[in-house]
Amino acid sequence: MKELGSGTRKLVDYCFERSGVKPEMLIETNKVEFIMELVKKGEGISFLARRVIEKEIAECALKAIPIKPEGLFLNVGIAYLNDQQLSPAAKAFLDFLLPLVQIQKSTS
């Protein structure tokens, strides 16, 4: 399982709590590669963001099992210093994200 404090872990803990289930976790780590290797060896299962394991799914090294039809979403944030000029790449990235934030706010 991802470590305490990670977005994935918070979401999974919330879902288990909401369902009244207490999972038995044997290992907690912040190393996604370590988790994937244990799962590939058949030594357990885990909850990981689909984007993190897309390559392994495409290679049939791991299998994703949907856990609810509407999916689960992590809230993320972007932080940057107000008093520093952004690089052109950072500015382009921020310009790309800002319309998405507006869409998210209007659909909430």
Please write out the topology.
Elements: H1 7-19, H2 32-40, H3 54-58, H4 88-107
What does this entry look like structurally?
- With 108 residues, the chain is mostly helical.
- The chain folds into two domains: 76 residues, no CATH class; 31 residues.
- 44% of the residues lie in helices and 0% in strands.
- The protein has four helices and no strands.
- The longest helix has 20 residues.
- It is extended and about 45 Å long.
Unreliable stretches: none
Please give the count of helices: 4
* Biggest pleated-sheet summary: none
Number of strands: 0
Defining key terms:
2 domains, 4 helices, extended, 108 residues, 44% helix, single chain, mainly alpha
Task: Explain briefly what this protein structure is.
This protein is mostly helical. The protein has helices at residues 7-19, 32-40, 54-58, 88-107.
